[in-house]
Amino acid sequence: MATRKELCEKWQRSDICPNIVKRVQQLCTDSQTCLAYLSGHGEFEIVDGKSTLPVSLNNHTCKFNQWQLTGVPCKHGMRAILYSHFDPLKFVHGWYSVKRYKMTYSHSIKAVPDQQQWPETDFPKIQPPTVKRRPGRPVKNRRRGEGEARKGKRSATLRCGKCGDFGHNQVTCKPTEQEQGNQQQEQPSQSKSNATTKSKAATKPKATTKTNSTTKSKADTKSKSTTNPKATTKSKKSATVQSTNN
Hints:
With 246 residues, this protein is of the alpha+beta class. The protein has a domain at 2-104. 44% of the residues lie in helices and 8% in strands. It is built from seven helices and four strands. Strands 1-2-3-4 form a four-stranded antiparallel beta sheet. Helix 2 (18-30) packs across helix 4 (75-83). It is flat, with a radius of gyration of 52 Å. The termini are far apart. The model is unreliable at 205-211 (pLDDT under 50).
């Protein structure tokens, strides 16, 4: 407080604080993007982009509500003030005057001595209350207020990877009525396909047995022809000798 008291004594202005003056200058430049239309004595319509806001210089109000909260005209009110060729600093609330600032920091905080330098008294020393442990497990969660939202469960943000909805997972996912009807229609077709596959599987071993028997007979004939080459040559020689004798 003492440093701010010394700082305000060096200010040259006597109407508004310097930091508020800088803010007003910035608002004057920002108000160039707005358009002002006079609708009455001290009443304006300010067009800011796609929005139209009523401004009253008589009541120091703007529909944007910033002027009423801060006490400093917003850029919409500043556009109306500049349109009327008024001084913007006259529309700033008296809270920001240099006089009020100096009155706020005119007092000082007295120095407080250390605890060891406190005077001793006959009054009993105040001790902290004794803490008694309550039965049961201690509570870890903080007690919430009446209007405060309760801590939600994890399932509130859980998303199912099957249907994409929130609040459950694939294991607990329940099909809808349409999905149940589609499943019932698919079950007869699946049973028919399973029956056809079973019949095909039953007929395949017979074909394999036939192929096995044919392959065996061919292999036997080949083995017989290959195993008795001498007998064939002898039969050929005997046939040639009989032909010559005749």
